[in-house]
Amino acid sequence: MPTVYLDAVLEPPRSLSPRGFNRVMLFLGVMSLIPGLIFYFMGAWPIVGFLGLDVLAVWAVFKLNFRSQTARTYVRVTAEAVDVRKVDGWGRERCTHMPSHFARVEFDRAATGPDALRLASSAKAYSLGEHLTPRERETFARRLSQAISDARRERHTHDQDRQDPA
């Protein structure tokens, strides 16, 4: 069993709990129902449907947002390899496997987009931590660099042991 130097799960922050979502939707429903009833009794009954569509649109946007919050990025560093597995909100996976000896962390403090933190090997680079805050990104970059360095050190030690059969 290889030593695992880093086994991290990166996930987007959840800004609203399911209970909070229910409260927001209840509030919006009541706030649409009251003017809807007023317009209905005034004879402008089509307005009720439009107010209902507004609440339905807000509900749909929240549901799409909740789906994107199920995205996860799994990063695992061993002496042999660095594995990155990204799962989007729809369940689609993208996996990357690179030797830890050739992996490097590229971190740009000035960048704010998804390419601020990358894991690179040869000419390929993979973005990590798109949803992390700048401070979290910097902390994760440091931790990932340290894990890769530790993995290289173990691999280098094992390679020397094989060469020196004393």
Characterise this structure.
With 166 residues, the protein is an alpha+beta fold. The protein folds into 2 domains: 4-11 and 71-163, Roll (PH-domain like), CATH 2.30.29; 18-68. It contains 3 helices and 7 strands, in the order βααββββββα. It has helices spanning 18-41, 46-68, 134-163, and strands spanning 4-10, 72-78, 81-87, 93-99, 104-107, 117-121, 124-127. The strands form 2 sheets. Strands 1-2-3-4 form a 4-stranded antiparallel beta sheet, covered by helices on one side. A 3-stranded antiparallel beta sheet has the order 5-6-7, with helices on one face. A hairpin with a 2-residue loop joins β6 and β7 (124-127). α1 runs antiparallel to α2 (46-68). It is rod-shaped and about 85 Å long. The model has no long low-confidence stretch (mean pLDDT 87).
Features:
single chain; 166 residues; alpha+beta; PH-domain like; 2 domains; 4-stranded antiparallel β-sheet; 3-stranded antiparallel β-sheet; 3 helices
Summarize the helices and strands and which ones pair or pack.
Blueprint: E1 4-10, H1 18-41, H2 46-68, E2 72-78, E3 81-87, E4 93-99, E5 104-107, E6 117-121, E7 124-127, H3 134-163
Antiparallel strand pairs: 1-2, 2-3, 3-4, 5-6, 6-7
Helix pairs in contact: 1-2
Outline:
The protein is an alpha+beta fold and 166 residues long. It contains 3 helices and 7 strands.
Q: Unreliable runs, pLDDT <50, ≥5 residues?
A: none
* CATH architectural group of the largest domain: Roll
Query: What is the CA–CA distance across the termini?
Result: 25 Å
Portion in strands: 15-25%
- Given this structure, which CATH class of the largest domain is correct? Mainly Beta
Order of helices and strands: EHHEEEEEEH
Class from helix and strand fractions: alpha+beta
Main pleated-sheet profile? 4 strands, antiparallel
Which oligomeric form is depicted?
Answer: single chain
Computed over alpha carbons, the radius of gyration is 25 Å
